[in-house]
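Regression report. Comparing outputs from two consecutive submissions.

Submission 1:
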Amino acid sequence: MPGMTRPADTPLLLRTAGLTKDYATRVLDSVDLEILEGEVHALVGENGAGKSTLARILAGLIRPDAGHIELAGEPYAPSGKRQAEAQGVRMVMQELNVIGRLTVAESIFFGHLPHRWGAIDYPGLHRAARPLMDQVGLSDVAPDRPLETLGVGRQQMVEIAAALSRQCRLLILDEPTAALTAPEIERLFDQIRRLGQQGVSFLYISHRMEEIQRISDRISVLRDGRLLTTRGAAGFGLDEVVRLMVGRPLEETRLAASRPPNGPALRVDGLAAPPALRHASFELRFGEILGLAGLMGAGRTEMLRAIFGADRRAAGRICLRGSSAPARIDHPRDAVRQGIALLTEDRKAQGLLLPLSVLANVTLNHLRPFCRAGGRIQAAAERRAVEQWLDQLGVRCRSPLQPVAELSGGNQQKVLMARWLHRNCDILLLDEPTRGIDVGARFEIHRLLRQGADQGRAILMASSDLRELLGVCDRIGVMSAGRWVATFDRNTCSQDDLLHAALSGYTRTHP
């Protein structure tokens, strides 16, 4: 049932009038938006539509070039984040801004740590953090655990716990579930509903259309910086929302292989990298997409990193291309030399060199084809090759020399794919490849993955979105409590089957 029913006379909390922002181009164009007290107001649109810019203005991070804002009937023009928070407007951003060496408790109460006799009161801090951590599903995490030891999904939950640590009137959530799995999402939604009943308003930004319809009271659609419409979530069909967002209808993503797999690409036997990865055995074949499901903390990311040589393995064998002899992969360079690529879940921190150009990000690990004697780079040949990849993958950019930081999330992900295809890697390990990507770009990424598999590549794809796995993958493996517990054919399993397997390691003891 979408959101919560609001009385017709629900007070207005926030109103924008004529909000406009220009950079190289106009990114917000005279936006008039109203948010009611206690409502969950969804804001949807493709990457580049202006959603994050609008959210950052409301949170005091940037200033508009024109227009004005009212909060509870009073003028609202925060000079910075701190002033916005003092007036009750807080934001959890899509791109996490964390200090890895802080503990979880310190991160939650950063800026208002409890003191006693001039020193931080750590016992009091941990006691205060515990209920907030329990609310967002971090009951199994110690308050004094360093934040840098947590995965992206759990860091996201710490950020949400921090936002809940102080009273607020409007909480802006930018892609809050991008790295969460079904149980964590349900827990977050429970907290949103509870806070909504207490009068807290939410501006909820997400590319996951099913979530939008479930949690929101009203939906506003942005396209090219303009607010097209605001309507009640009930009766606002997903097909119509998507059509308004992208300007065209999209087919349901249910992509099937054009030919059967043609031989083993990767065989993993008894792989372990404690404490997160305890045991994994499976086979990946050329020409298929093998999905990887599991709850947050189940060991999916750790397994991909262990295969790639980014984390040290304690046990297990990795065999490549049908060989019975184990491959030596002790470092990522060993994996790359043997045709294995990894697209990490955090593309900005661990994948891209943001200040550099699109061209440099594509060719940085394989410049040899463009090198002359003496090490000089043939710039024209390099540019031609990159332009071919950009055209083939449909990357939208002004030129190959544009900084990759200026591209949308979907186009950044395609640049990473171009890098590994340029390197001619035929075994692709993908960790949350559509995290934070809008519905149109998501469809294009799925199409490219299916195309890659049909061309003979082997793809292992971890995702917290079960619908995505069922729509794109040929088979789906499930990890639970650090173990590979089941493998399903996508045509004969359901989301319930996958979720039951994902929970199994936490409800029974494995041998």
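Submission 2:
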Amino acid sequence: MNAIEIENLQKSFGTRRAVDGISLAVRQGEIFSLLGPNGAGKTTTLAMLSTLLRPDGGDARILGHSIKHESAAVKASLGVVPQDIALYMDLTARENLDFWGRMYGLRGGALRQRVDEVLEMIGLTERQKDPVGKYSGGMKRRVNIGAALLHKPKVIYMDEPTVGIDPQSRRSILDSVVALKEQGMTVLYTTHYMEEAQELSDHLAIMDSGRLIASGTQQELIQLVGGLDRIRLAINGDVERVLATWRTITGVKQATVEEGLLMLLVEDSNQALPRLFESAAAAGVRITSVEIQEPNLEAVFLHLTGRALRDG
């Protein structure tokens, strides 16, 4: 059974098409990631699925309820973790959760019990009486997640929840996402971190410039690059000039620059590497490091768009 069904969803801001007719389905009880660079349309998509923005075209159903015609029913079934921290910095964690619990209609003993449960889930029981403004970025993110869980939603959206936090807090949040799935929730997760999508997702979709360019399991997406090998190289010369030359070499399917390194998709690394070294030597350039990688989601994005995921 599908928890989320999206059909031809569209949204424009002036002349810019932020979401360009995307369609996808998210199964109940799975983690589904929207992977793409900043500006791909992920947050706008979540805003429409949360009924905060009305789509210009198309529709979506959350647990069978239309976002256009049944917004109250949609909101009642959702928990939303926004990219920006939506907390009161002068209040304690407990006071923040108490406030949001009341917004969801919880009262009295039921509210106190649920706040206790959520504080335990996010690992902040011992710090519950400290003002949120004194928390680290990762702790604030955890309270942000806790606020979305108070009413026990069946579907939860998480918009880039690990941006700008330390590795330990990031690990805690990723573990909590898996725990939500184990509790039977459906999680729609947006990220521009390839490794997060690879670790978490049952299914995922790659977005770019408002369009859905591929979707499926990780293995299904990786098959899109076929048998291509991915090579990462560092050189001590003019990167752009070498890049232009290497793009003409037999067996090189794509070549781009990422953080000063040359990223190539090639048919056979064993055949391509001697040609790359020969070409570099002829140009008076020395290759200083070579790394051959198995195909991954970053290679898929490069294959489909012609640029690295981080370039977005």
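Expected: both submissions complete independently.
Actual: both completed, but the second showed a warning that disappeared on reload.
Relevant detail on submission 2: Residues 167-182 form the longest helix (16 residues).
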